Structures
1.
Amino acid sequence: MEKSVVIKASNVDLAVEKALAELGVARDRVQVEVLQKGGLFQKAEVRVTVRESAETLAEDFVNGVLDAMHINARATAGESDGEIVVDIAGEDGGAAIGYRGEVLDAIQFLTRTYVGQEKNGSAKIVVDCENYRAKRRDTLVALAGRLAEKAYRTRRKVVLEPMNPFERRIIHGALMDSEIAETHSEGEDADRHVVIVPKGVELREDRPRGGRRDGRRDGRRDGRRDDRRRDERGGRDERRQSGARRERSFRDEEEVPDGREYRGYYTDNFVKSEAPKSGPPKFKSFGGGKRR
């Protein structure tokens, strides 16, 4: 929706300045229509209309989003190679990018949707910040080359993590003319990802982790594990038996054979002692003197 104001002033130039201040835009972004030039006893009157191009819509929208997110950065829009590029620059540029460009992609998606609704069409809009798009492109191209070599060397498919359409197109384009690998996309919506398939080789079957192709575990490895478990069980049984023998060897003083007394926990700790004397027990007095 176009913004327009009608301003009266003593002359045309002053009226235009007031209109620009009210609209908050630059002179090159508006269209001025002089309704009345003014004179000695008559004021000048102008209608100033903001030119609602796709560039201005995108720029204003992105700046509004940055203000709403309290990000200290500003956006400027321009046209390059048939597409509108909105470049964000400022102290909080990193916050506008987000983790792996997630925030930047979200702003770009919203901007395209808004401009498309306002202009009743679809415009090619790219939102960039601190040359992130170019850096990300170089990273993905290098990654595609390494993974293609890995797929060819191992003769196995390489499945990449889910990516947005922009990044998937970079991977496909990087390996479009490759002689050792080809690509295709799988999955739906947010889970859509790229699969790299080696060319000219027979693909290997993926074995179950820790086992054979038929799904059974390796008998030799299991045998080693079973032997180790048997040894552990045998050691525990032996310790239990040893403990039982020690427990059986333990005797109370009443069970000690005549002529020996208990001095420990093991049978060989019994030692000889004098045999108990017959007769009534004798008690030792500690309080009185000896009677005569």
2.
Amino acid sequence: MRRAHRIAAITKMLVEQPQRVYALGDFADIFGVSRSTLSEDLAIIRQAFGQLDLGLVETISGAIGGVRYFPDLTEAQIREEISKVCELLEEPQRILPGGFIFIDDVISSPFHLRNIGNIFATYFRSREPEYVVTVETAGIPVALKTASSLKIPLVIVRRQSRVAEGPVLTMRFLSGTARQIETMSLSRRALASKSRVLLIDDFMRAGGTLRGLTDLMGEFDCEVVGKGVFIETGWPKEKLVTDHLALVYLKEVDVENQKVLVQPADWV
């Protein structure tokens, strides 16, 4: 196999399995070349990715040796992606009765969803989460892509328990906006005790769901190492959680004038 073909194949394998460590010996067996030749191939890939800001290709030293890929985004790429999302969300036709906006097409778009997940992964990777946790159902796509980028399992908390889940822990929590008592349930087998977890949700108003998730993780004796939200509203001003990362800030929905005011979060 020619070097160009080998580099193309290695690149595809790395990108499709972010954070997976490939041993140089495995590549040597697949392509029938020496480790020194593979090191030269990886140097070319790493240089190209660095010049084009396509993520990080990390070489692992040691007796075995290996390589892995991180789909991290640069600050400029994060700003560009969130700005594009804000432009989409400001479209007047997205306004729904009650002052809400339609976001399902954005969090269902493979392109935007991939970038949103990579943004959360880039920000929270250093905290070394072992699980991504979300509540059914709207937040699942964002949480799943985040878990995929981090190469860790996704755990979905249910609104109602299911028989097939076995023993569950059910907890009541106070909704931040409606001020109503709601419930969430999680199978005892879904999450290992003492785990490090990252909470991800698609939309946050008062923060009741994230607060409930945090309390539920405490019941599993797990440590919450981060909280990520795709969109946070400007109302109500008093939130039940403050230590979270939002990507987009929904300031105002003017139903009468058909106007939506959205901006990137301050940290962006």
3.
Amino acid sequence: MSALIFSLNKDFAPYTTIHGVLVDVYGEGLLITGESGIGKSEAALELIRRGHRLVSDDVVEIRRPNNERLYGRAPSITQYLIELRGIGIIDVKSLYGVEAVKDEQRIDLVIKLEDWSKEKEYDRLGMTDEYMNILGIDVTCHSLPIRPGRNLAIICEAAAVNHRQKKMGYNAAEELYRRVQNNIETNK
């Protein structure tokens, strides 16, 4: 009975779709968004090659089964597929194996890819979190400026691990601030 109630709650939960890519990175659900052609699928492919798992490419179906969590999955028609401009459609499950895909993932973090701009000031310390509201739930969101030569997969991995550390109570930006304050106090 409990399993049936859980399943029905998921099936009839509030629902939306978002243009993006959902990947499981070290257990953290990473939703990568951005304009078409900015590199979301390429970042996902590199993450898969590094041992992480694809949930959905291009369109992510998102459900809110309760007031605390969001879950994403691929539409059945595009499940396990990635579109790479210039190459076409690839089947991640057949190319990389069953370990490279996942049917559903909780969404923990949003990475918004955007073209780098000289005029925009980007967060360099991470002292304040930005959020993206999806179905009434605020999800931590980082805007990543895209420039040639940046390794998005490594940045996404670092963002996922850093997010997990914050959830566990450790914030590197706050640690730096504490050290600077201690240094100021010591040198008075």
